[in-house]
Design goal:
With about 375 residues, the protein is of the alpha+beta class. The chain is built from 12 helices and 15 strands. A hairpin with a 2-residue loop joins strand 4 (about 120) and strand 5. The longest helix is centred in the N-terminal third of the chain and has 37 residues, at about 1-40.
Amino acid sequence: MKKLGLLLIGITVVTSLMAQDSRDSVIGKLDIRLERELQKETIHNAFLSVYSPSRDFEYHIAKGAFKDSMKVTNAHPYYTASVGKTFTATAIGILVDQDKIKFDDPISKYLPDAIMDGLHVLNEVDYRDSITVSHLLQHTSGVADYFERKTIDGTPSMFDLIMTQPDRFWEPEELITYSKAHFKPSFAPGAGYYYTDTEYVLLGMIIEEVSEMAFNEFLAKNIFGPLEMNHTYLNRRSEASKPTLRMAEMYASDYEIGSFESLSADWSGGAVVSTGKDLITFQVALLNGNLVSEETLNKMQQWVDETKGMEYGYGLRKINFNELSSGLPEWVVIGHSGLNGTFMFYCPDLDFYLAGTLNQLEASKGSVLLMMDILIECTKL
């Protein structure tokens, strides 16, 4: 019996050591993979957070440096760009659960005439009363996108204005006015899919109208605070609840733009600043029903086709890797990505949460490949 006991102890120790070796090996591979991104000329910093409750695995890594040579760390928050749309959609879901709004409500019920007038006029038909909250959430309203690179009148695009007027602060109403003046709607509400930031600015306005508080205050009260996301805030409009390091620098090609006041043009379409740990906390809470009801979460995951291998719900994007390329595994991830190479996804097939960024506007496609590589490595745990 004594020998059997010693044998079992020995097996347990060996198994534990083998498991630790496996974890160390995976961590080493993750470090190398992120370092490979950093070797690219336009990538100045990179962040990655990985969490799997079923595998009892959590790892956070940051690489790179600021222009002043200070190293970035996991404690430095980063700009999440359109990942913020999931926060906006969740805020709407919270209001739905509070019975203060319905997904199929016309948005004209909540927005003033100054916003609705001329918002969606197509072929001399005014669709102002046909646009619903769900249309905005799922990018099926047909409303013009103020972030389009080419205006109908040849005037500077919003991206050009952000770059050439870095000290300008944009109010939400200005964004809608700009959209109506320089772009045309794409289709009648519900007749197609077209990703537009204008829709999420309108959603931010609705949140403020219904909740009677500023958008950033609503997020802080209903999401950041309850989840103790102490290092998350809305860029240019609020501060983190606890002392937080400066935001990691973000680039557009060779230009550092993270410090631009003009990024206020994002607002409820993508101005959340957060850490990888906070983003994973948010993902876990949302997808486990701790922020919205099961019914609302199911609504948020009603999908429409976006592009090859991708579908869109209510502030959520679903990616099927095998549909992107037949040589990739048949894994699905659900979450959101951002133009600056930021990602926040959950892979139900493997039970892995991922968050991170390459902080470069030219790296949005690269971040998808990075996620794929990370998941492949994590299967070795």
